[in-house]
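INPUT
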Amino acid sequence: MLSISNLHVGVDETPILSGIDLEVGPGEVHAIMGPNGSGKSTLAGALAGREGYETTEGSVTYDGEDLLAMAPEERAARGLFLAFQYPVEIPGVSNIYLLKSAVNAVRKHRGEEELDAMDLVSFIRDKMRLTGMDDQLLYRSVNEDFSGGEKKRNEMLQMAVLEPRLAILDETDSGLDIDALRTVADAVNQLRDGNRSFILITHYQRLLDYVVPDQVHVLYDGKIAKSGDANLPKELERTGYAWLTGSGEAEPESAAQEQ
Amino acid sequence: MAETTEPVSHYQQLYHDAESTLPGAGIDWVAERRRAAMARFAALGFPGARNEEWKYTSLRPIEKRDFALPKRAGHGLGAPDLAPYLFDEPATHRLVFVDGAFDADLSRIGQLPEGVTVQPLSTALEAGMESLAGHLGRYADPEGTPFVALNTALMSDGVFLHVPAGSTLEWPVHLLFVASEAIDGIGVHYRNVFVAGEGARITAIESFLGLGEATYWTNAVTEASAAQGAEIEVYKLQEEAPSAYHLATFEGYQGADSSVTHHNISLDGRLVRNDVNTALDAEGAYVSLNGLYLGDVRQHVDNHTRIEHLQPGCVSRELYKGILDGRSRGVFNGKVVVQPQAQQTDSDQQNRNLLLSRGAEVDPKPELEIFADDVSATHGATVGQLDEDALFFLRSRGLSQHQARNLLIFGFANEIIEAVKIEPIRARLEDRLVQRLPQSETEED
Amino acid sequence: MASSQLEEVLNKGYEPGFYTDIEADAVPPGLNEDIIRMISEKKEEPEFMLEWRLKAYRQWKEMTEPRWANIRHPYIDFQDIVYYSAPKSFSDEDRPESLDEVDPKLLETYEKLGIPLEEQKALAGVAVDAVFDSVSVATTYKEKLAEQGIIFCSFSEAVHECPELVEKYLGTVVPPGDNFFASLNSAVFSDGSFVYVPKGVKCPMELSTYFRINAADTGQFERTLIIADEGAQVSYLEGCTAPARSENQLHAAVVELVAEEGAEIRYSTVQNWYPGDEDGRGGIYNLVTKRGECRGNDSKISWTQVETGSAITMKYPSVVLRGDRSVGEFYSVAVTNNYQQADTGTKMTHLGRDTKSTIISKGVSARYGQNSYRGLVQVGKNAENARNYTQCDSMLMGDTCGAHTFPYIEAKNPTAQLEHEASTAKIGEDQLFYLAQRGINPEDAVSMIVSGFCKEVFQELPMEFAVEAQNLLGVSLEGSVG
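OUTPUT
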């Protein structure tokens, strides 16, 4: 469903991604790991269409179409969801209002009828159970004065409500306590249905103890340096990222495979 | 306007009579600037009540009085008279001016680093110093306001302080402008010029001191230029005589990454007006304006400030606090302007007022004018009284109503005093503030 | 962002900008005592009204057009304006007595504007007075309201039906010599709404007036007077639109509110006069005096305004807090897009004891729009325990517009507690991207963020109009991003 080929992306004329190749099939869960500054968040931003990210080479197709040509909202309408590393605050706009607008924008795009307020609220309530969010947060302004954990749960709620086809979680696990981390993992696991695909961007392997990925990629210096199966993170835990810099440390061996 | 012709012609006459004896009369550029400024003052006249900048402050008492220029007579003041007002620690360069003129005997200028100028303005004007010519009137432009114009025409003395690139003036410069008993009916026009070159640092204390009961007019102008990375810190202490009129203008001009901090403490005088302005004209400049104004009996104190953000990424902070008692009146008008190119401006301005008595009045007006969209600008103004809960709390801890009240007033002012970095000045301010607090237990209304 | 798409939406323009071709009865352009006599005669006014007008006119002649606002516009030629214009069918004796007799073209006009005047079609619970140029063409639910003693009618009718009330209250809040435009209005005002709610009555429905300027070269000078007698309550809403023309047109209204002891008046405005085109051509000059007086103890007056239209606006709905424990409120959203200029705010005059006022102002500027908040909070010597809270926020879109804040405070009583806060907000790129990522297009995203910014004001509007106001905000900002 997602095919990234030789993707080069720069920000302010500084190249950040320099030739990413990645295929994500329906229902697959891919984890992308790598040290700080390796380009993980840039990849997430480029896929979601963040402004200022310039593609200098390569292509991304999504369901056979040119993803990079689409406006961010069109990508969203077609089922691409990004859980933000730093969820944004929008004063005066309630969470429920955002959800309502987003759901109906996506439904409208699909040619479906808009949900009325009653149906929508009960639909959202169902999803809230999944994320263990307090009801009160629905009526507060989007992310305003939310704790770090509440913000991340809120991202998961939006993901559950919008029912994406491809969800990208950008370091959703960072800064979370174990309970919140479990909530994130549960949300992903429950939404895994054989068709929905995920890209989990993470710095630590913690999240991958709860969500077992189909493939794991290590991003370094704007490129995928290594790909492997669900065992790769454990290796990384042992070896760290130092081998990437060529400082002589042992490279993880088991299950390593070249792309 | 017809009503202003009389006072204007009085000052034209003064200028005409004194032209040949004013400092620098023999220097062409000085004489020319004085002449042009006088013409400008004649054109502008005294601002009337319809002038928005003077909406709450009437200048009638100054206008109708025809203040004369200082006479060159002895003042009879000696070092012991001034001792209580001097700051020995830290070591300072001290320039004392009495009734409009520099007094070398009372002054003490210490060792100066190479290239640094600390000179009475009168001397610099007489010498026609070239380094002064490039700065005098450049930041405080006589075109703009009548009192800068009149000051430029009639300035008698002040200081020229020039610290070139890379130099640091270790000691603060203490400027003491003293009004003696003999100054009745006189208008003094002091002019200070501070120039800090790249990376240079200047600290100046401007004390205005009235020692008698005379009625006089101080019209002071200070202009300060901080080049890239320079730092200027000014402490202005206004302790004029009870029936004095005090008008003072500060004009700052700031280069990249420069910093100007201005402390404006107004304690005495009958009618006081301060204009404190600065232009942030290069990226990364920082300005901090602190003000404290006390009003009692029939004092009138008006503070106008203007911070102009002209370039991106500058920061401004402003906090002015007023305590108005008796039948005094306080005015605060703070303007922050953010020009279109001044993106990423970060500005905060606060004005807090305590109204302590029936009969006192305060008129705050914080203004914002914003033309750029990527800006963080906030301002606030409050008028209030002492917190009843806090009063109760202090009394429940054993303080009398009077003590509790004074403690809270002191606490209110202390936020400004704490920003004073020079310990002896801070101590003096604390003393003065305590003296100014209501003394008797029965002063409650 | 797809700016071509945005341009398209922008050029869709101002929907109420159509013109109704209807035969008009107008006085010649220009202003003198004869014109005033003519207007008074057309309205068959009693002598006291003519005298009142002439006195105002004589005062006006001595005044000059104010220039202190933060607004740039050419001087207005007051001899070039038509001061009275009414649909022909409303002149002379055979004017319509009931809705059936009203020219269908007029009814269509209001229907097109979304204000059907037939009661069965009308929005339930809202009574409407429809003012077309210089006359009121219909007032709905009059009879039903009369059952409770509520008078809701056009000003012209009130002059005939309850002259004693008009004479007692007219000009007592905004005197004829109050200011330049109020004096002009006092001399030439043609129609408007009149409301009287008797003692102890809570008005059972929203009252509203819909002002429509139609004829070219005509100014609209309406006068509204609302009186809530002791313990009465009323909520009133005004709306306004005009055809899109390349010339400027003047609207100089006066609104007076009187709240007697324990009475409460809520006055809401959704102002959508023609704002001019994207190059700043045309549009209404909206120069209005609105003031309420909390005359009795424990009374309350609340102004809410959503100002999206007009080329220029100078408007300061104010409250004189004369009664003890009286309350004044001002909630405002002002939007200036393209070349619009607004200088608006309020004046809260605290005179009684324990009075309280709240000011919430939200200014939104886009493109070349200039938005100024100008406010005055005054506390008199004897106004013990006065309280004011002012919050005044601005949002700018782009670096060619401007936001200005001029809040004046004058405190003469040591028990006053006054608080003013102001801040600027912007629409962050990150907010837009976040919403886009949730599938929301840029226009909706902007309108959503701006609505959030203005929420504290919208929630003060009667429910029926909050949605309309929100939509209007979206429409008036269309094309401001890109």
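end of record. The CA atoms of residues 390 and 396 of chain B lie 10 Å apart.
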